[in-house]
TrEMBL record:
It is found in: Secreted, Extracellular space, Extracellular matrix. This is Protein Wnt. The lineage of its organism: Eukaryota, Metazoa, Ecdysozoa, Arthropoda, Hexapoda. Keywords: Developmental protein, Disulfide bond, Extracellular matrix, Glycoprotein, Lipoprotein, Secreted, Wnt signaling pathway. Its main location: secreted. GO terms for biological process: canonical Wnt signaling pathway; cell development; cell fate commitment; cell morphogenesis; developmental growth involved in morphogenesis; muscle organ development; neuron differentiation. Residues 194-205 have a biased composition (Basic residues). GO terms for cellular component: extracellular space. It comes from Drosophila navojoa (Fruit fly). Pfam families: wnt. InterPro entries: Wnt (IPR005817), Wnt6 (IPR009143), Wnt_C (IPR043158), Wnt_CS (IPR018161).
Length: 416
């Protein structure tokens, strides 16, 4: 520590960068070993301490969510130069930076935790939560007939109440640290001071994009996914240590991308309905809110990876701004990064790049999986391989599928 302070006195900028990278190396290990967060539970406080000490079922779902995020990361980038390999020696190096790739990993794992915890609530696997029945609490807790206008008004009131609760939780942290790290979270008091009402059209625009209300009257029913519970516990587990630290660019970027991943879940909620009545008639229609498949969420975050914004630390040291002048600031849904991506064409143990040599490419494609792009213009080799595959499969009642074995010739192109 004394060496770092001395170096800071001699070269302030360089020492600050080293300090950030040391902090990131510590903070990101939680994704590679989620149990690491709970190993020093005596030092933990608040909700995070409760999860680690008393809630093994919730901790299990959090770990499942992190693993879900990594699996989807591998799927979405399977045909790119960086294929989001989960090899520890590579991913550990990636997570030590503040690159575009790190931003996606943080966003997809935060989304994965939100998704897994929310789904566990819906399935009744956690004793402290269940379906979200807040929409049905009016009229003595019984289902109430609504239409598009009254349903939207009720959801808006619910969101405003959630925003106010979150702001009240953040107020003590702001006064204690005098830090604007919470300005990159879902709810911002600064926007309210500037005339943006909580729950206003700008704040909730994307929340309604995928909610198509049916015509006529219907009733809230079924089992709505309790996404607010998932959001809270994803934030409690993944953001806790970063919020305890001083503000630096690495912390701000990580918290922003974590939140962008969670919002990708919340803003993709959709309305599903079921008709009830004699002979298939729709005398009564019951509707509930449901998350889409996680693959849809991960594809949306991959698109935001492609459009991620590079940022730099403001002079106040507590917030970030676009690195390029006259560039529109990133909103809370977009991914941000501070470090340029390393060269993934050739292997480099210092950056975690594994290179693309011997990767399979597509000779007829013009996209990222094309041999020209994936092989970094080094060329590729072509060969024909012979494989045994299942063919002529037949379903037999009940319940068996039988297949024959066929010899198949397949063309394979691999990078030089």
């Amino acid at each position: 520590m004394e060496h770092l302070i001395g170096q800071h006195d001699r070269d302030k900028g360089k020492a600050h960068q080293v300090g950030i990278h040391i902090h990131m190396a510590e903070g990101t290990n939680i994704l590679l070993d989620p149990n690491l967060m709970c190993k020093k539970s005596r030092r933990l406080r608040g909700k995070l301490a409760d999860i680690c000490r008393h809630d093994s079922a919730l901790l299990k779902e959090i770990i499942n969510g992190i693993n879900l995020g990594f699996r989807e990361c591998e799927f979405q980038f399977r045909n790119r130069r960086w294929n989001c390999t989960v090899l520890r020696k590579s991913m550990r190096k990636i997570l030590m930076r503040d690159s575009r790739e790190t931003g996606f990993v943080n966003a997809i794992t935060a989304a994965g935790v939100t998704y897994a915890v929310t789904k566990a609530c819906t399935m009744g696997q956690l004793v402290e939560c269940s379906c979200d029945k807040s929409h049905m609490r009016r009229n003595g807790g019984q289902p109430q007939m609504v239409n598009a206008a009254t349903a939207e008004a009720a959801l808006e009131r619910q969101q405003q109440a959630a925003m106010l609760r979150q702001q009240q939780l953040q107020l003590p942290q702001r006064s204690h640290r005098n830090s604007s790290s919470s300005s990159i979270t879902d709810y911002s008091l600064d926007r309210q001071r500037n005339g943006h009402r909580p729950g206003g059209r700008r704040g909730r625009r994307k929340f309604w994009d995928n909610i198509k209300f049916p015509q006529g009257e219907w009733e809230w029913g079924g089992c709505s996914d309790n996404v607010n519970f998932g959001l809270r516990h994803s934030r409690a587990f993944l953001d806790a240590k970063q919020r305890q630290r001083r503000s630096d660019l690495g912390t701000l970027v990580k918290l922003h991308n974590n939140n962008a991943g969670r919002l990708a879940i919340r803003d993709a909620m959709r309305l599903e309905c079921k008709c009830h009545g004699l002979s298939g008639s729709c005398t009564v229609k019951t509707c509930w809110l449901k998350m889409p498949p996680f693959r849809e969420i991960s594809a949306r975050l991959r698109d935001r990876y492609d459009g991620a914004r590079k940022v730099a630390l403001r002079n106040d040291g507590n917030s970030f701004m676009p690195e390029t002048p006259h560039t529109k600031p990133a909103n809370k849904y977009q991914l941000v990064y501070a470090d340029d991506s390393p060269d993934f064409c050739t292997a480099n143990p210092k950056t975690g790049a594994l290179g693309t040599q011997d990767r399979e490419c597509n000779a007829t494609s013009t996209g990222p999986d094309s041999c020209d792009q994936l092989c970094c213009s080094r060329g590729h080799k072509h060969r024909v391989v012979t494989e045994w595959t299942n063919c002529n499969c037949v379903f037999k009642w009940c319940c068996e599928v039988t297949c024959e074995k066929c010899l198949e010739h397949r063309e394979v192109n691999t990078c030089l």
